[in-house]
Amino acid sequence: MQRLLTMLGGGALLVATGTELAAVLGRYIGVPLLGSIELVQAAVLVSASTSIVLATIAGRHAMVHLLLDRVGPRARAWLQRVNYGGAVLFFCALAAGSIWIASELWSGHEETELLRIGYRPLRILAIGAVLGTALLFLRLAFRERHR
Fold it and tell me: Which pLDDT tens digit goes with each residue over 18-33?
């Protein structure tokens, strides 16, 4: 699963980079690439969604050790669980807001202006990523508790 997510996110990042390169070169030679911003935005959403899930799986989120390194093991474990709980709440709030917006605009058939890229699949991907991240943090919180 991690390999698939890495390939998907990395591929999306390459698409974004290639699209932007083509757009810049096109502007210089007088042949603009219409819709390049829309393609880059969609690709970055895919890349960011996979990245947040992969960072959670790998335990590689940014963390300030200023406090954690100065407390005992029990306090450190407790603070880590509090951190995981806060992350669960944060990502659940992101999911709730995204689901709310998606439900309000579901019948609107939203799409980008030039390329008509539909927003529904992008919203579903973003919601899946934040819900998946919340579940991963919830699993971490309970796993740390039973150690």
Answer: 999 999 999 999 999 9
